[in-house]
Amino acid sequence: MQTFQFHPYLYKTFLFYLRSQNSQITPSAYYLMVRKIIHIDMDAFFASIEQRDNEAFRGKPLAVGYAEARGVVAAASYEARRYGVRSAMPSKTALKKCPHLIFTHGRYDVYKSVSNEIMEIFQEYTDLVEPLSLDEAFLDVTENRFGISSATEIAKEIKQKIFEKTNLTASAGVSYNKFLAKIASDYRKPDGLFIIRPKDGEQFVETLEIERFFGVGKVTAEAMHQMGIKTGSDLKQFSEAQLTQAFGKAGHTFYLNARGIDDRLVEPDRERKSMGAELTFEHDIDSLEQLQLILHEVAEDVIGRIDKRDFIGRTVTLKIKYADFQIITRSKTGFVPVTTFEQLYRIGLELLAPIDTSPKIRLLGLTIKRNDNRIHPADAYQLKIQFEEWKNER
User: Fold this and answer.
1) 146, 175, 196 — which closes off a domain?
2) Distance CA 5, CA 128 (A)
3) Tens-digit pLDDT profile for the chain (394 aa)?
4) Which of 51, 145, 181, 282 could form a disulfide with 39 if both were Cys (CB 3.0 to 4.6 A apart)?
5) Is the CB of residue 61 less than 8 Å from the CB of residue 77?
6) Range of 147's domain?
7) Which residues are catalytic?
């Protein structure tokens, strides 16, 4: 089939036009506008760096994190994953699954440095690079600096260059949109390469378990199971109206994804929307005074992070996790950006004051969210209305 390589923004405009005309976007029509998207995902990134730099860790189950009672696994090597150890798992649980698990503290400055090396490799091929975290990114290589027609060949080259420069392996997914490229990168880990071609996309999606779909977490998956939706094929039986009624705006995305369609662009300049920090306590706390001291520490951490990245936001959110793992959040949005520790800590104290501490608390977090249409005080001005002159003119 003849395909046309739309510029990404013309492609987005064309899709919008079709929808505004109530035109059905069929998979065959979609293929005419096909993009070439690669998703690169480093293999067990933090743990692999530690194993690379420390011979004693190689070939052994390793976790980056803290082994203390309230510690959490930040990353796990593939040797550890064979025992069921996963990131975000409590260290205590991880040690039960793998008693000989080795813990090492994270070296985030090293991880960031290696990540920068990898991003430089991506930029050799295209400006359309959208980092999702330190260890993964989308690349749109429809048009690339070397004029290579095959996205698969580019993915192979990138994987090889990453290994030569960092001695680390990466997995790559190649497809015609972000949804399928990300799924493909996870298909043959570690050190994998998987391609989902336009002619195969819709049929491939039909076989996917619903948990593999973008935006389907545990709660959504349970709701879908109650509706009899367990695979992409099951999801495809529901109309867009039915899915929107059940899942809100996400229903529209589910409807398209079930047909192998995802019109999201690779956004190289995507702004980070929030920044924060949280702390899990060694012992559960019910003392407001202790929580205020911890809030002080967390607020200092957050301010340090936003200062380094020139981040500006006006909405502050306090996160509390109780001993029974119930989570609550409280937010406040001001008229001016939160840029100082004094501002953040004061707002944090206001949000913390009414919190019920009788069920003991195990975690406290603070987040600053970027707001649209934000106005810096220096850019603001006061309107002056001459009421007397207006009154006389009437």
Assistant:
1) 196
2) 15
3) 344 444 554 555 555 555 555 545 554 444 446 799 999 999 999 999 999 999 999 999 999 988 877 788 889 999 999 999 998 888 989 999 999 999 999 998 899 999 999 999 999 999 999 998 889 999 999 999 999 999 999 999 999 999 999 999 999 999 999 999 999 999 999 999 999 999 999 999 999 999 999 888 888 999 999 999 999 999 999 999 999 999 998 999 999 999 999 988 998 876 678 889 888 887 889 999 999 999 998 999 899 888 877 788 999 999 999 988 889 999 999 888 998 999 999 999 999 999 998 889 999 999 999 875 444 443 344 444 444 444 444 4
4) 181
5) yes
6) 37-196
7) 136
- What CATH number has the domain bearing residue 321? 3.30.1490.100
Alpha carbon 113 to its chain's center: 20
Beta strands (DSSP E) in 290-345 are 315-322, 327-333
Q: Give me the count of residues in the chain.
A: 394
CB of 240 within 8 A of CB of 251? Answer: yes
Q: Give pTM, 2 decimals.
A: 0.71
Number of domains present in the structure of the chain? 2
323/362 Cα distance (integer angstroms): 5
Residue 225: CB atoms within 10 A of its CB come to 13
- CATH of residue 111: 3.30.70.270
102 three-state secondary structure: strand
What whole-number distance in Å separates Cα of residue 190 and Cα of residue 169?
A: 7
